[in-house]
Automatic annotation (TrEMBL):
Family under the similarity heading: Belongs to the cytochrome b5 family.
Keywords: Heme, Iron, Membrane, Metal-binding, Transmembrane, Transmembrane helix
Gene Ontology MF terms: heme binding; metal ion binding
Protein name (database record): Cytochrome b5
Alphabetical list of Pfam families matching this protein: Cyt-b5 (PF00173)
UniProt-listed InterPro entries: Cyt_B5-like_heme/steroid-bd (IPR001199), Cyt_B5-like_heme/steroid_sf (IPR036400), Cyt_B5_heme-BS (IPR018506), Cytochrome_b5 (IPR050668)
Length: 164
């Protein structure tokens, strides 16, 4: 049998069984076809498997970087949590007593020191907050005049612990 006819028959069979080259409609510009093929690491890459593997490696590296950034951010937030008491600055009563003005107001609540200077003007009780400026405000803070939301708000003003 003639080899040329055999080769032609094989080629014809291959062409019949070959999958369509491009599943996208012909109305889509060709640059979009190429971009789709290059950017999708799970489709065969016309430049070779090395480039496809490199793209997958880049995605893995980016994913690892995001995970590390999230963990680092969480660690930094936890280490600054005022309720933990770890690494908190310690102030003496004498040092706190120096901050007793409207423009520099620190208070002590249950052996924790709070800088409430930025809140003095917003305080619903007016200048009542200044009565305890530079001193212990625990009794006044837990009085009936305060709504429960102040217990959540006070953490925003925490700066350290009182020296024992």
């Amino acid at each position: 049998m003639n080899c040329r006819f055999m080769a032609a028959g094989i080629r014809a069979r291959e062409e019949c069984h070959r999958a369509p080259v491009d599943p996208l409609p012909h109305k889509v510009p060709t640059f979009l076809h190429r971009r789709r093929k290059i950017n999708n690491p799970f489709t065969p890459n016309p430049q070779g498997t090395e480039k496809g593997a490199a793209e997958i490696l880049d995605m893995v590296i980016a994913l690892v970087a995001v995970v590390v950034a999230i963990l680092l951010g969480a660690f930094l937030l936890i280490s600054q949590n005022p309720k933990s008491g770890i690494g908190a600055k310690v102030y003496s009563k004498a040092e706190v007593s120096l901050h007793n003005k409207r423009t520099d107001c620190w208070i002590i609540i249950k052996d924790k020191v709070y800088d409430v200077t930025s809140y003095v003007e917003e305080h619903p009780g007016g200048d009542a907050i200044l009565a305890h400026a530079g001193g212990d405000s625990t009794e006044g803070f837990y009085g009936p005049q305060h709504a429960t939301r102040v217990f959540d708000m006070i953490d925003d003003f925490y700066i350290g612990d009182l020296e024992k």
